[in-house]
Design a protein that fits this description.
With 308 residues, this protein is an alpha/beta fold. It has seven helices and 19 strands. The strands form four sheets. The chain has an eight-stranded mixed β-sheet. Strand 7 and strand 8 form a beta hairpin. Helix 4 packs across helix 7.
């Protein structure tokens, strides 16, 4: 996946002019481009394959003629979900915010090119992390940040997550969760069609509806957390795990004095601990958050891992 062209313009609704490189500014967009600003369409993408098809259809068009900032090769943009994060070059990071757009009137691009494919195939993003992008730079999909909620047994991890998830969602973040289980599980209900499929020997069973999809799949060995997140959570802003004490991810420990005398971690061996959420004073060498102050915990996570 690669950048094949970069284009900018000083006015909206006009063709953009090719440049060899451009500066992406976090929270703003492409420097010196008319579409940059404090909104959700800070930078635009279009597949070079789409431009090629337009040429084959008889349109005399080149890079920038559809007012795209970055033309790419090797990305099937229409199958990249909103929320997906991408790295461009060595530094820049963007997050997809919109696929296609509504044009209320035909602009100069339409009349000059004879058609405009941006409303159908254009991809729009906001800039999470700035940096210079150049023609030829690689593009890669980035997994969302992972924060593990950990504790000794029966300390209230699920209870904390039940309160934390809606608070983060209320702020506009897409949140995914992964629950770690050491013993194996059955998630289907006995007698249901999908349960019967699995009992009959299906190694993978999927149930799909207009608003949900569920997958049950046999594995030869436990799937690595990074692989799970990369494969299933690419369009999330954040993944919270319940458990995964040995996962090597940033951890917030839940500690309640009524459940245990001592925390899971110690100040001498904090590991990947970044905070403790507790109902009593405890010094683990990291910030202590009130386990009952969900807004403060959400503030901490957002400040450290999320960008708006």
């Amino acid at each position: 996946m690669q950048v094949v062209a970069i284009s900018i313009s000083k006015k909206k609704g006009t063709r953009k002019s090719p440049v060899n490189e451009a500066l992406l500014i976090a929270g703003h967009g492409v420097a010196h481009d008319a579409h940059a600003g404090d909104w959700h369409r800070q930078v635009s993408f279009l597949a070079s394959e789409s431009i090629g098809r337009a040429r084959e259809g008889g349109l005399a068009v080149d890079f920038g003629d559809f007012a795209e900032n970055i033309a790419t090769r090797g990305i099937d943009w229409l199958n990249v979900p909103v929320g997906t994060r991408l790295g461009i070059g060595d530094q820049a990071e963007v997050q997809i915010t919109q696929i296609g757009k509504e044009c209320h009137r035909k602009c100069a691009i339409y009349y000059a090119a004879g058609d405009c494919i941006m409303p159908r195939e254009g991809i729009f993003a906001r800039v999470l992390k700035g940096g210079t992008v150049r023609v030829g730079d690689g593009i890669r999909f980035l997994p969302p940040p992972i924060v593990s909620i950990v504790s000794k047994k029966n300390s209230g991890k699920t209870t904390l997550l039940e309160k934390l998830i809606p608070e983060l969602c209320r702020r506009g973040y897409r949140v995914g969760t992964v629950k770690h289980d050491h013993h194996g599980f059955d998630i289907d209900r006995e007698g249901k069609d999908t349960w019967r499929h699995k009992q009959a020997g299906a190694a993978t069973v999927v149930i799909s509806s207009p608003k949900k999809i569920a997958l049950v799949k046999d594995v030869d060995a436990e799937m690595d957390l990074d692989r799970i997140v990369t494969r299933f959570f690419g369009d999330m802003d954040l993944v919270l795990t319940e458990g995964y004490k040995q996962g090597g991810k940033p951890q917030i420990e839940v500690f309640r004095k009524a459940a245990h005398d001592t925390p899971l971690h110690t100040k001498a061996e904090p590991g990947t601990l970044i905070a403790v959420a507790s109902d009593v004073a405890v010094d683990l060498g990291v910030p202590r958050l009130d386990v009952n102050d969900i807004q403060a915990i959400a503030d901490f996570i957002a400040a450290r891992f999320l960008t708006r």
